[in-house]
Design brief:
Layout (H helix, E strand, L loop, with lengths): L1 H27 L1 H36 L3 H51 L8 H15 L2 H29 L4 H5 L1 H35 L3 H9 L2 H56 L5 H42 L17 E9 L9 E9 L3 E5 L6 H8 L7 E6 L2 E2 L5 H5 L2 E4 L10 H6 L7 H12 L2 H5 L22 H13 L5 E5 L7 H14 L4 E6 L10 E6 L2 E6 L1 H5 L4 H22 L1
Parallel strand pairs: 3-8, 3-9, 6-7, 7-8
Antiparallel strand pairs: 1-2, 1-4, 4-5, 9-10
Helix pairs in contact: 1-3, 1-5, 1-10, 2-3, 2-5, 2-10, 3-4, 4-7, 4-10, 5-10, 7-9, 7-10, 9-10, 14-16
Length: 609
């Protein structure tokens, strides 16, 4: 009973997944999909009926009856003309329409995947299971899943049309002949089971494949090149790759006997039985009972062979569709993933304040709290510095502030209303941010600053932002200016930025934004003291009248803040202005004195030089 339910469930999933993929095809390129279906059906019928049956029967009848060759030639030329027309339209469709369809459908599916990844909670990107689901979802494109399903469906319809036509003809010749053309149906059972084992094998290999892919990407990325060159980390990478490969070999060995057995059984029922059985039966009628002539004998063999081929093709494509429908199931599961950070409906008004009320937060799967019982208020026109050593919870607070995560306990209020009540995107639009782990994209400098497509209006905004951030000179000396592509991954004339230049460009994103609240997480970590001082001066000028939150373990920037919050182990242990905190013998003063003495020692060293 349990096995029967599982089989019914698999069939239901196959039908639903196939229907889902066909809908994608109809939405992305309906005319192309219909053209493929019609072309393949016409081509199949022309081959089966015109070439394999009527042409052969005409030739054999003329030979048997001794009729003139002229009649035979006329029949041949007529059928050749039909076949050439059929082949021409098929080749045109396969060469142009098929490629056009595949490109448009692939684009449509990728946009669904990219859109879902863009919408996903940031916590998803810390979940290995999410990455496994994403990897399997991309198999629909990367392993030609959508092509095999959609092309498979069109070929199933085409082959079914050819099979039915030939089967009807064979029944008129001999009612026992259909027995030999139905055995391939049994082969479908074994092929379906083999496909399921293959999918289970690939599913178990997903984690190992991700490890292998990580090694492949890492050895090619510039970010890791120096460490790989000057250390022996490559040996560890090779070990990880080898371990992942060995794991996949173990999985393959486990499934190999099952897959090979089902493949062998499918070949027996799909090819050997129908071929040998039909030939033996036709020989019996021709040579023993003498109930058919040479022309009927030849046509029966050809028709049965084509019927067998059509049924095998149907069985093959149905099994193929069944196999790749598992990939579609993974895609649908990925698209159905629900976010825990859900949008509200309210539109946030002009910013006045944000209040944390007894907020605690714990990352999923961890017992310890990253933040514990945090209460604070951020107001319009004030600058707040959040300082502390690494791991104190500073960056976690910024993520809660922008609702990248929701608080585990307590609440966060925007103008007195819980931020969960607001439309998520409209709420986040109130923020401009610069993260310590910023990324530079392989696009133009202007696009990297605006973080969107450029046009005649916003290009000026990008230019001003780049100048204000202090990296304008870099692009003024380049032929394409701020339209220069960054990195050389896709453009040999692309610009390479130093760490400080890249950080200034990341800060330029803030200057190009329209925001109420600025969140700066270690925005000057790659800058020298002079560049840092200049950048903060520009930041304070650009954010005048705004709410500014900057996070750092370097305290030189905190001196200019209206409020300073000192974090330790996820808690606020001190708060006040710079002068207030320096007047007490607390952690802030110890940190500040420690860093100040470091600067003095460094300056003394340079003076001696």
């Amino acid at each position: 009973m349990k096995k029967e339910k599982q089989q019914n469930s698999d069939k239901a999933h196959t039908l639903k997944n196939t229907a889902f993929m066909l809908k994608c095809g109809l939405k992305s390129a309906p005319a192309s999909l219909i053209s493929l279906l019609v072309s393949r059906t016409v081509s199949t019928l022309c081959f089966d009926i015109v070439t394999s049956v009527f042409l052969l029967k005409t030739a054999m009848s003329i030979i048997e009856s001794g009729e003139s060759y002229g009649k035979f030639a006329l029949s041949i030329f007529s059928m050749i003309a039909v076949k050439l027309i059929s082949d021409f339209q098929e080749d045109f469709v396969l060469y142009y329409v098929r490629i056009r369809f595949e490109i448009k459908c692939e684009n449509f599916i990728n946009h669904m995947i990219f859109g879902k990844a863009q919408e996903a909670d940031i916590s998803r990107f810390e979940d290995p299971d999410f990455f496994d689901r994403y990897t399997r979802a991309t198999y629909v494109v990367n392993k030609d899943g959508f092509k095999n399903i959609i092309h498979g469906c069109t070929w199933i319809v085409a082959n079914l049309a050819g099979f039915v036509t030939l089967a009807v003809y064979l029944v008129t010749v001999d009612k026992f002949l259909p027995i030999f053309i139905l055995t391939p149906v049994i082969a479908f059972i074994f092929r379906s089971r083999k496909n399921k084992f293959e999918f289970m094998r690939e599913k178990e290999m997903t984690a190992s494949e991700r490890r292998k892919d990580y090694v492949r990407r890492t050895v090619l990325l510039k970010d890791f090149a120096k460490d790989i060159k000057i250390t022996d980390i490559f040996s560890a990478l090779k070990r990880n790759y080898s371990e992942a490969t060995d794991k996949n070999i173990e999985i393959a060995k486990h499934y190999a006997p099952k897959i090979v057995t089902d493949e062998l059984l499918s070949v027996i029922f799909a090819s050997i039985i129908p071929t040998v059985g039909a030939f033996a039966y036709a020989c019996f009628r021709f040579a023993v009972t003498k109930s058919i002539g040479l022309s009927d004998f030849s046509v029966i063999i050809a028709a049965v062979t084509n019927c067998r081929n059509r049924m095998n093709q149907i069985s093959y494509y149905v099994s193929d569709v069944h196999k790749y429908s598992y990939y579609v199931q993974s895609l649908r599961e990925f698209l159905a993933c629900e976010n825990t950070v859900k949008s509200g409906s309210l539109i946030p008004g002009d910013f006045e304040s944000i209040e944390f009320k007894n907020v605690s937060f714990r990352y999923e799967g961890r017992e310890e709290y990253a933040l514990k019982n945090i209460s604070l208020t951020l107001k319009k026109g004030e600058t707040t510095a959040i300082v502390g050593f690494n791991g104190a919870g500073k960056t976690t607070l910024s993520k809660l502030l922008m609702r990248l995560y929701d608080a585990t306990e307590g609440e966060i209020l925007y103008n007195g209303v819980n931020i969960k009540e607001y439309d998520l995107q409209k709420y986040r639009d109130k923020f401009a941010s610069v993260f310590q782990d910023y990324k530079i994209f392989a696009m133009t400098a202007a696009e990297n600053v605006l973080m969107k497509e450029t046009d005649e209006e916003n290009i000026k905004i990008a230019e001003n932002a780049i100048e204000t951030s202090g990296v304008g000179e870099k692009f003024n000396g380049l032929p394409n200016g701020i339209n220069t592509v960054l990195t050389k991954e896709f453009d040999e004339n692309g610009a390479l930025l130093s760490g400080g230049e890249a950080q200034k460009l990341a800060v330029a994103r803030l200057f190009a934004s329209d925001f109420d609240i600025a969140v700066l997480d270690e925005p000057s970590s790659a800058l020298d003291p002079i560049a840092e001082d200049k950048m903060f001066g520009n930041l304070l000028e650009a954010t005048c009248g705004k709410c500014v939150v900057f996070i750092s373990h370097r305290l030189s920037c905190a001196v200019r803040a209206d409020n300073i919050l000192v974090f330790e182990d996820g808690k606020i242990i001190e708060r006040g202005t710079h002068s207030e905190l320096m007047s007490i013998d607390g952690e802030y003063r110890k940190m500040f004195d420690m860093q100040s003495s470091g600067y003095k020692t460094e300056n003394q060293y340079y003076d001696k030089e």
